[in-house]
Amino acid sequence: MRKLTSYAVLLLPLLFGLLVWGQRNTIGDWIALRSYTPPAAISDLANRTTMTPLAEKYLYVNKPQLDDRSAFNKHCKNDREQSVVLGCFLGNRNGIYVFNVTTPELNGVREVTIAHEMLHQAYDRLSTSERARIDGLLQDYARNKLDNDAIKNQIELYRKSEPDALSNEMHSLFGTQVGSLPSELEDYYKQYFTDRQKVVADYNNYQRAFTDRKEKIAAYDAQLTESKQRIDELEKELEQQRDALDANRSEMDANRAAGQIEAYNAMVSPYNAAIRAYNTGVNNLQARIAEYNETVNARNAIADQEHDLQQSLSSKELPSAARQ
Length: 324
Fold this sequence. Notes:
Elements: H1 2-22, H2 24-33, H3 40-48, H4 53-60, E1 65-67, H5 69-75, E2 87-89, E3 96-99, H6 109-124, H7 128-144, H8 149-161, H9 166-177, H10 183-189, H11 196-257, H12 261-313
Parallel strand pairs: 1-3
Antiparallel strand pairs: 2-3
Helix pairs in contact: 4-6, 6-9, 6-11, 7-9, 8-9, 11-12
């Protein structure tokens, strides 16, 4: 009986340790949340993204913060020059930070970012078997059904910069940026959002600010290419007219010098008409050049707007806009 008692004494701490280990996230979450009240701005973002209580817990255990540029750069390190980082998740209960974008044209970006980072915490909590199932669904969708080039480009950036975290990133990207997902994935994301489409709508809203301007720039660039071609043609025509006028003038001067006044006088009227036509062509060219320059200014103003919006999204100083 003494031996059995000894074994029981040894076994109890072990069982208690296993129990605590099995409940470590529950205990850790309770400790993180017991004295935490989310700031109004954070709870408002959680409400607007329709986060479920489970999603709110995953968000709040990280005590999320909206950061200005200086604070964000301290919290979220981004060494990838070509990548705009809007938020970061530092690991289980270690913090979520969101770049505080306040530009009106980019309404929705904070909502999408905070939902994206919350989903990283959610992915971290998946069991081994559930993660394998979700990874399979994400990879199948990416390979066979994804038709959004912008999201494909994001995936390729992650594939190069964070290949080991690719499924994790797709888990956040698809959940916040893709409107229509296969039913199994839609059902899966319902545990985090009561209306996921509101998050996707926010994503589309701020992306539209860029796509509209890109389309305008492309239209201006096409117009400028056509205008430049016509200006080049007019300049060539005027050069030919000027050469012809110079030749006629030389011939007229030669006739006058040789005393061939009748021949000289016969050329005066056609020469003057050609001068008038040339001057009309010059005026037309100048008008086209002025119109071209106005279009360049309009095009560059849109490019500057796009650059300013990009700068609003970046915690780093971006290069100047590409101008015509």
